[in-house]
TrEMBL record:
<dbReference type="InterPro" id="IPR001199">
    <property type="entry name" value="Cyt_B5-like_heme/steroid-bd"/>
</dbReference>
<protein>
    <recommendedName>
        <fullName>Cytochrome b5 heme-binding domain-containing protein</fullName>
    </recommendedName>
</protein>
<dbReference type="InterPro" id="IPR053100">
    <property type="entry name" value="Cytochrome_b5-related"/>
</dbReference>
<feature type="domain" description="Cytochrome b5 heme-binding">
    <location>
        <begin position="66"/>
        <end position="96"/>
    </location>
</feature>
<dbReference type="InterPro" id="IPR036400">
    <property type="entry name" value="Cyt_B5-like_heme/steroid_sf"/>
</dbReference>
<dbReference type="Pfam" id="PF00173">
    <property type="entry name" value="Cyt-b5"/>
</dbReference>
Length: 99
């Protein structure tokens, strides 16, 4: 089982949920006040892949955008991207994205 990095630092589910509530803004249109909405930029008028990815980076607090998260572990794929059989484009687009 893969454990979220934030959850691993908490001893109870309640403290984990409290941390998520503090780090995540609520949607303006949410019917249930305690319902957390991901990603951060969900309520932006412009909805596109870049907006979604930037919201995920904020929510998941990756920090260094030169890292890729794969199965909750961070990797530097900069050198591999140049050799990737499908090209570096997709790897560059997903850099900083959390799975």
């Amino acid at each position: 089982m893969v454990v979220d990095a934030v959850m691993a630092s908490h001893t109870t589910t309640a403290s984990y949920l409290d941390t998520l509530k503090k780090r995540t803004k609520l949607s303006k249109n949410v019917a249930m006040p305690d319902f957390l909405v991901h990603p951060t930029n969900r309520d932006n008028a412009l909805k596109c892949g870049e907006t979604w990815l930037s919201g995920k980076v904020v929510d998941d607090d990756i920090g260094d955008l030169n890292l890729w998260r794969v199965h909750d572990k961070l990797y530097d794929l900069t050198d591999f991207a140049k050799k990737h059989p499908g090209g570096a484009f997709w790897l560059d687009m997903t850099r900083g994205m959390v799975e």
